[in-house]
Every structure is written in C-alpha cells, then in structure tokens.
Design a protein that fits this description.
Layout: E1 6-10, H1 14-26, E2 30-34, H2 37-46, E3 51-55, H3 63-72, E4 78-83, H4 89-96, E5 101-104, H5 109-137, H6 150-163, E6 169-172, H7 179-188, E7 197-201, H8 207-215, E8 216-217, E9 229-230, H9 232-235, E10 240-244, H10 251-263, E11 265-266, E12 275-276, E13 280-285, H11 289-294, H12 300-306, E14 309-312, H13 323-338, E15 344-345, H14 347-355, H15 361-375, E16 380-381, H16 414-432, H17 437-444, H18 448-457
Parallel strand pairs: 1-2, 1-3, 3-4, 4-5, 6-13, 6-14, 7-10, 10-13, 15-16
Antiparallel strand pairs: 8-9, 11-12
Length: 468
C-alpha cells in the first residue's frame, strides 16, 4: 500500500506522538493521533485506519486492551506495538493476541519505517486477494463486446481513443445496448486496468441508501450503521467507477457528485473528514440528459463535467448485421453453462429473430437465447423454443391492432387491444403445441389452470385443443 494510507498513532507521551506524526507524514501517510486508549477507540469508531501504532504501557488501559478491542470489533487495521522494556515478553504476548509486529524503544528511524512499510504491504496484498476472490465467486456472467458491423467498428475505435485519456466519459444508449460492457472495455484498455472497476446502477438502489453506498458511512450515522463502511468511491480508488443510469440521481446527490468531481475528495455519511481519491468516472444513461437539464431535473454543471467525451451506442435494430455473430456467441456461451450440445438455430428460428424489433436490444437477445438453449431438445434450436412474443408481428416487431381495438372515432380501445393481443398469444401457443393445452401453457410459462382460465375468459374454451 503506497502513500496515502491512514495510520492511527496512540501514545500517552506527546513528544512521541508528534515525532511519529511528523515522520509518517513525511512518508506520505495520513496520520491521526490519540493520547490514550479511549481516544483511540473514538477515532476508530468515526474512521477506518489501515494501521494502528500503539504504545503498550499507558496509564489506565494499555495497548493490549486496545488490541483486544480492535480484534473484537473485527476491524481491518493491522496493529504494531511499541514497548520500552528490554524484555520482549509483553510484546510477544501481543503478537499472540493478533498484533502484526512490535518495535522496542529506542528504535531507529529506518526500523519503524520498514515495519510500517511491510505492514501496509501485507494489508494491501490481503485486500487485493479478497477482491480477486470476490470476483471469482461472483455469479456475474462472462460477457464481451461482440460485433463487426460498421457501427460497432466505430464504437471500438472510440473506446480505444477514450481509454488512452483520463477524462470522464458519458455513454449514451437505449437499455440493453451494452453500456457496462463498453465501460469495462474502456477500463481494461486504460492505464487503470490493474486497479478496481466498480459498477453501480443508480436506479436500482433506494435514494435513502444510495448516498451511503457511494460515499460510505461512519458508525452511528444512521439507524443500522453498526460499523464504519467504505463507499464505492473508496473501493474504486485508483480505478474506474461506472455510474449506470446516472440520470436517476436526485438533485441533492447530484450536488455531492459534482463536489467529488471538482474537489477529488469524498466525505462519508456522518463523517467529519475528507478523503482524497483518484477515480475515473464513466457514466451511462438511456435518457436525453440535455432534456433533463432543460426541465431542471439534472444539473447543467454536472452534465458538462460528466459529458467531457460522449460515446453513443447503437440499438440492435441498427446493427442487425451483427445478429448472427451475437446469436453464435450466446448459443456457445449458454450451451457451455447449461451443459447442452446446441449448435445453432433452425432457419425458421433465425427468421423470427431477424423479424423482431428487439426493444430490449442485446440484453433481450441474450435472455431469449438462454431460454431457447435451456428448452432445446436437440442440436438445433427450433422456433418453439424461442419466447412466444418473437412469433408475433412482422419485420418492425409491431403487432397491428385488430379492428375491434379501435373505436369509430379512431381512438384506441385499450381493453380490446390487450384482449386481442392475449388471444393471439394463446392461439399461437396452442398451434405450436399441436393443440395440447398443457404444452401450450408451458410454452407461455404459465400454469395449466391459468391457461384454462384465460381461454375461458376470452371465449376460447371450446377450442378443439386437448388437455393432455
């Protein structure tokens, strides 16, 4: 762990505290001091530290009492003990209780510097290993950018140019176009690739929790804050923070984000000190932030801070040349994950994919192929394994309303429109199931009882289909 690490020095001798503070600050560390154990515990409650350096013998509570309290609180800080006694028996006892190391007074400058350096290197390595283990345990699916169309070639070129800079990036595109994949690609090709990539969907977390998630909090700052917690800005320090759906941030949080971008510091919820961070922001939105600014829902100054470089992602319908490549990629991926031997799609199944409008873009395609691979009974995916909605409509993916869905004035009758749509799905499922109602219900992903109820509601219960 390099300079900037946070160290707490605990010693009842003022001269020793000041000496260590000056020494360690010269080395680039962020140093806090305390004159006794109670003061140290207060500091530990309100902040996190990478290392605690504590004298063992102090009036009242000793350094061993502090060590025990730190261990009981499961704090992440390593502890180095200082002892003035010729015997090392007490210090060795401290090591058995979980101290990282000890030094004896009088110590040499190089000695204390080396002990601190080794302790922080150990903590940094432990943190990195924990992060890597977390990523390995993650159930996040392996995904990558796929496509050779002209639009995607333009995206690849832009990613390469953007990655080489240090500026903030705003990725714009419809939901499901792969904005997080592009953000990861920018991070991977940048100088920050060895540092963390941290992503958060601003629309997926309740507003009252989002501030704590982003900036962290200190113990007791709100109900349920039972300990100190670093935020995602701290977790991404040195790397990239991806703010998906940034247009969903409330105006108060927009102000705090703007401050981070301007000052390069963050303050935890309930905290009283600022922390310097080095984070590159890549934001994404499916909204037109220019319209949000005009409507007063998004700060203009924040918009310009985020929108230093804008990268526009095309919807799937504008890059249909990539459809076969994407289909092959997802078939191969889910066949491997699900233990199936699927080779591809039938001509009819591919025709349905090409005819669909893909309002959900690549994410919708991915989910459709996963379903199809899971339901497929052989080496080739047939049309019946695709989601029912793909069997409706023409090349635009729009389903024309039946005449009964419109009034004489030409206005849409929503109830009739929904009924006609549902009737079409039920009849289509029956046809593809060979008239077997239970099979048709399975194709639609609903229970047989629900299927029968819908048939009766729409007057289709006399349909010559079979229950079995």
């Amino acid at each position: 762990m390099s300079g900037g690490a946070r160290i707490l020095v605990v010693d009842d001798e003022r001269s020793m505290r000041e000496f260590l503070e000056i020494l360690l600050r010269k080395e680039g560390y962020d140093v806090t001091t305390a004159g006794d154990v109670d003061g140290a515990l207060l500091a530990l409650e309100s902040d996190d530290f990478d290392l605690v350096i504590s004298d063992i013998q102090m009036p009242g509570k000793t350094g061993l009492d502090l060590l025990k309290a730190i261990r009981e609180a499961n704090a992440d800080a390593l502890v180095v003990m200082i002892t003035a006694f010729a015997t090392t028996e007490t210090a060795i006892s401290a090591m058995k209780e979980g101290a990282y190391d000890y030094v004896t007074k009088p110590f040499k400058l190089d000695e204390i510097k080396l002990v601190v350096q080794k302790a922080l290197e150990k903590k940094s390595l432990a943190s990195e290993n924990a992060r890597l283990r977390s990523e390995l345990r993650s159930e996040r699916r392996e995904r990558q950018l796929v496509g050779t169309s002209l639009r995607m070639q333009q995206v690849y070129e832009m990613v390469g140019r953007v990655a080489a800079t240090k500026t903030n990036v705003l990725i714009v595109g419809e939901s499901g176009t792969g904005k997080e994949l592009v953000a990861r690609a920018i991070h991977t090709e940048s100088e920050r690739s060895e540092a963390p990539f941290v992503a958060i969907n601003c629309a997926a977390i309740p507003e009252n929790l989002l501030e704590s998630e982003l900036f962290g909090h200190v113990k007791g700052s709100f109900t349920g804050a039972v300990g100190n917690k670093p935020g995602l800005f701290e977790s991404a320090d040195g790397g990239t923070l991806f703010l998906d759906e940034v247009g969903e941030l409330s105006l108060p949080l927009q102000v705090k984000l703007l401050r981070v971008l301007q000052e390069k510091t963050i303050r935890r919820v309930g905290g009283n000190s600022d922390r310097r961070i080095d984070v590159r922001i890549v934001a994404a939105t499916n909204r037109k932030l220019e319209d949000e600014v005009a409507a007063g829902r998004f700060r203009e100054d924040l918009y310009y801070r985020l929108n230093v470089i804008q990268l526009q992602l095309p919807p799937l319908r504008d890059r249909m040349d990539d459809l076969p490549l994407l289909v092959h990629h997802f078939v191969e991926k889910f066949s491997r994950e699900l233990g199936k031997s699927v080779r591809g799609l039938s001509d009819e199944a591919m025709r349905l994919l090409r005819a669909h409008a893909w309002p959900g873009n690549v994410r919708e395609l991915e989910n459709s192929i996963e379903r199809a691979v899971a339901l497929s009974r052989g080496e080739w995916i047939e049309a019946e394994s695709l989601p029912p909605a793909l069997g409706q409509g023409g090349a635009t993916g729009e389903r024309p309303a039946a005449p009964s869905a419109r009034t004489s004035a030409g206005n849409v009758d929503l109830d009739n429109l929904v009924a006609d749509y549902e009737r079409g799905l039920l009849l289509d499922a029956l046809q593809r199931a060979g008239g077997v109602k239970k099979r048709a219900a399975n194709l639609l992903g609903i229970s047989f009882r629900s299927f029968r109820y819908r048939l009766e509601k729409l007057g289709l219960d006399d349909d010559p289909g079979r229950d079995e």
